Amino acid sequence: MNRETCLSFDRQDPLASVRDEFVLPEGVIYLDGNSLGALPRQTLPRMTQVIGEEWGSGLIRSWNAAHWIEAPARIGDKIARLIGAQAGEVIVADSTSVNLFKLLAEALRVQPERHFILTEASNFPTDLYVAQGLIELLGGNHALRVIERADIERSLDGSVAVLMLTHVDYASGEIHDMRGLTAAAQKFGALVLWDLSHSAGAVPVDLNAAQVDLAVGCGYKYLNGGPGAPAYLFVAKGLQGAIQSPLSGWMGHTAPFAFEPEYRPASGITRQLAGSPPILSMLALEVAIDLWLRVDQQEARRKSMALGDLFIKLVDETCHDLGVEVASPREARLRGSQVSLRHTEGYRVMRALIDRGVIGDFRAPDILRFGFSALYTRYVDVFDAVRRLREVLTSRAWNRPEYANRLPVT
Ligand SMILES: *Cc1c(COP(=O)(O)O)cnc(C)c1O
Question: The whole model's pTM is what?
Answer without folding.
Answer: 0.98
